[in-house]
Amino acid sequence: MLARILFVLALILPASVFAQSGTDNPRISDGIAELVYGIYCAQEPERRDPAPDTASGHLNIVPIIPDFQFRQKLVPAEIGIGFGVLATAPLGTIHDPITVTVTHPPYPDSGIEVEQWISDIEDLGPSLMGFSFDTPNELLLGEWTFSAHTLDGEELFHIAFEVVQPELMPQVVSTCLGSFMS
Do the bridges between strand 155-164 and strand 27-28 make them parallel or antiparallel, or are there none, so unpaired? Predict the structure, then answer.
């Protein structure tokens, strides 16, 4: 049965999904002690901080670091789904500030393909750099990348996700159904 599902997915999904299995995705520098990636159920934000270089103009700040329930790079395009990384710096290291960059297919209303914000990565615990689908215009199929760079331009990490039709991942959608909805 599993072989049949994989065969059907191979026929439906773009080739870029399978190309991501290479050793360079994710790329992680020595400036990162741990990088966890995957999918989480979006939370209602406790506040919104200004982020002028994002399409929405703000970042959702969540009350707790989310549990990455699915540790994978294949993401369903569905309201209430979040995805991204949790990054921790090596002991005794603080990267502050860093620039986080998310690239994605162009938004239909604005053409925006690159969003950036300032954050930090510390050694005391993981920092969340994620994106949650909050509005229908964000549900863009294709490759989404997340990266972080220091002020000196050092790349700390880079990872590519593939966003696909939600029907291909009903287990993820049903897990998060009823979580954060905007």
Answer: antiparallel
